[in-house]
Amino acid sequence: MPPIPGSGLAKGLAVTLRTMTRKTVTAQYPDVQPELPPRSRGVIALFEENCTVCMLCARECPDWCIYIDSHKETVPAAIPGGRERSRNVLDRFAIDFSLCMYCGICIEVCPFDALFWSPEFEYAETDILELTHERDKLREWMWTVPEPPALDPGAEEPKEIAAARKTAEKLEAQRAQEAQQAQQAQQNQREAEGEE
Amino acid sequence: MNDVLDVALRLVIVFAVFMVLPLVVGQTEHKVMAHMQGRLGPMYAGGFHGWAQLVADGVKFAQKEDIVPAGADRRIFQLAPAVALLPYLLVLVAIPIGPGEGAVGQVVDAGIFFVLAVMGVGVLGSLMAGWASANKFSLLGGLRTAAQLLAYELPMLLAAASVAMAAGTVSLPGILDAFEWWWLPWQIVGALVFFVAGLAELQRPPFDMPVADSEIIFGAYTEYTGLRFALFLLAEYAGIVVLCGLTTVLFLGGWHGPFGADGLGWVWTLLKTAVLAFVVIWLRVSYPRLREDQLQKLAWTTLIPLALAQIALTGIVKVAIS
């Protein structure tokens, strides 16, 4: 059956009218903050307490946009007669976000969980030089890092929790054994007293 | 003295309507168009949903430098926006919005003639702008305007003639006095022809070939800046108001409504005009621009035969009922 003449025109009008009754898709950004998906790549935050200055991030960075300065400190021996230990102290940690391409390799490569993705994205500057952000700013962004999404139900236990649980169980078992031994010792003593 | 006051008051009211309604239509277009495209449209100017956007635009236009190209025909170039805008003001004087002497700027006996003749002058503004700009794109735009005016003035006149025949008068209030509800289905073809031809004469999308920006920049208005450009834009929206008002008066029964006591006729007129203005915006959003040859073909092979058929129908019915 051939289409009714003018049905195409009516269809066009219907489409626009239907769109008018629907909710608009406009994001009113400065007034309303966008709802970012989890794992958004906004900015790289530094948890400097975890950083050991291993330099892996700076070395792996394809853009060479991470600047790290450090010095060594000696820590006095923990026990008398022990050996002094040396420790790396972070002096400067800066990321030049005018060079960064947000590949996230530094975050992947960090063995001590010192770098994180933060969804924070409002750090535009009027001068490109000001886009090099130092450790205090990077540490501040750490507060905006969301907690990791929950595991799937039935997923394998995270390694660190499994390790902690194992240690706790071991300690528990040890304590129980000691208590049992103490009880046994007490009983033996009482029996010995009774025989006298 | 009283007569002078009366005339002055009427003129002031008509002028106020002329300044306000086109802006209302323009703002409605901003918003309706945006929502039809899934957007919000202006949201900031004036605070509440950008109601003052067009006021802000006007301020911006007034601040801009008024440039006349070196090679342009200076006087004609500067006069063109006024020629485009003023006819719509004159037409507005003659459109009745309610019954009686009090609801029309000035009763003109040959109303239809006056209105259609003066509306035709408005298009001359674009033609003058096109010629005077000394710019090839402007000239092309002006010529397209002229071609469009020639093609669409005829069906518009024929459709209006059909109503005049039905009413037996060419006075606009006279036509409305004679109006009966069954004129609506009787004159529906004429109404469609009149409305479509009017849209084409206003160079509104989908008939905006004379200002097709992808081909000839902005047609006859290419060289204009500042306030003169704003006047051309205002003329377009004033044209929408006038066209919708005229269609309401000629074909939709003006102040007649299915209910509503006396004294509320002007509400019906404004309501019908507003609905038609919405349709104008709706058509703009929905349809792509017609090519120049399609434009001419629509006028000469579709609208004119339809208008002639409407006149024949009007004549037959008129003879049959008398």
From TrEMBL, chain A:
Major location (coarse): membrane
Keyword field: 4Fe-4S, Cell membrane, Iron, Iron-sulfur, Membrane, Metal-binding, NAD, Quinone, Repeat, Translocase, Ubiquinone
GO CC field: plasma membrane
Reaction it catalyzes: a quinone + NADH + 5 H(+)(in) = a quinol + NAD(+) + 4 H(+)(out)
One GO MF term attached to the UniProt entry: quinone binding
Cofactor note: Binds 2 [4Fe-4S] clusters per subunit.
Membrane topology: Peripheral membrane protein
PROSITE patterns per UniProt: 4FE4S_FER_1, 4FE4S_FER_2
Gene3D superfamilies cross-referenced by the UniProt entry: 3.30.70.3270
Source domain of life: Bacteria
Residue ranges, compositional bias (Low complexity): 176-189
Matches recorded under InterPro entries: 4Fe4S_Fe-S-bd (IPR017896), 4Fe4S_Fe_S_CS (IPR017900), NADH_quinone_OxRdtase_chainI (IPR010226)
Enzyme Commission number, as recorded: 7.1.1.-
Sequence ranges assigned to domain 4Fe-4S ferredoxin-type in this UniProt record: 42-71, 91-120
Compositionally biased spans, kind Basic and acidic residues: 156-175
Residues covered by region (Disordered): 148-196
Subcellular location: Cell membrane
Binding site for [4Fe-4S] cluster 2: 61, 100, 103, 106
Record: residues binding [4Fe-4S] cluster 1: 51, 54, 57, 110
Cofactor: [4Fe-4S] cluster
Record has DNA repair as a keyword: no
Record Pfam families: Fer4
Family membership noted in the UniProt record: Belongs to the complex I 23 kDa subunit family.
Protein task: NDH-1 shuttles electrons from NADH, via FMN and iron-sulfur (Fe-S) centers, to quinones in the respiratory chain. The immediate electron acceptor for the enzyme in this species is believed to be ubiquinone. Couples the redox reaction to proton translocation (for every two electrons transferred, four hydrogen ions are translocated across the cytoplasmic membrane), and thus conserves the redox energy in a proton gradient.
Known partners and oligomeric status: NDH-1 is composed of 14 different subunits. Subunits NuoA, H, J, K, L, M, N constitute the membrane sector of the complex.
Descriptive protein name: NADH-quinone oxidoreductase subunit I
Species: Streptomyces atratus
TrEMBL record, chain B:
Membrane-topology descriptor: Multi-pass membrane protein
Keyword Hydrolase included in the entry's annotation: no
Superkingdom classification of source: Bacteria
Catalyzed reactions: a quinone + NADH + 5 H(+)(in) = a quinol + NAD(+) + 4 H(+)(out)
Keyword Translocase: yes
EC number in record: 7.1.1.-
GO cellular component terms, A-Z: plasma membrane
Pfam families: NADHdh
Keywords, in A-Z order: Cell membrane, Membrane, NAD, Quinone, Translocase, Transmembrane, Transmembrane helix, Ubiquinone
Transmembrane segment boundaries: 7-26, 79-98, 110-133, 154-176, 182-200, 229-253, 265-286, 298-321
InterPro entries per UniProt: NADH_UbQ_OxRdtase_su1/FPO (IPR001694)
GO biological process, one term: aerobic respiration
GO molecular function term, any single one: oxidoreductase activity, acting on NAD(P)H, quinone or similar compound as acceptor
Subcellular location: Cell membrane; Membrane
Family, per entry: Belongs to the complex I subunit 1 family.
Subunit structure: NDH-1 is composed of 14 different subunits. Subunits NuoA, H, J, K, L, M, N constitute the membrane sector of the complex.
Protein task: NDH-1 shuttles electrons from NADH, via FMN and iron-sulfur (Fe-S) centers, to quinones in the respiratory chain. The immediate electron acceptor for the enzyme in this species is believed to be ubiquinone. Couples the redox reaction to proton translocation (for every two electrons transferred, four hydrogen ions are translocated across the cytoplasmic membrane), and thus conserves the redox energy in a proton gradient. This subunit may bind ubiquinone.
Protein name: NADH-quinone oxidoreductase subunit H
Organism of this sequence: Streptomyces atratus
Gene: nuoH
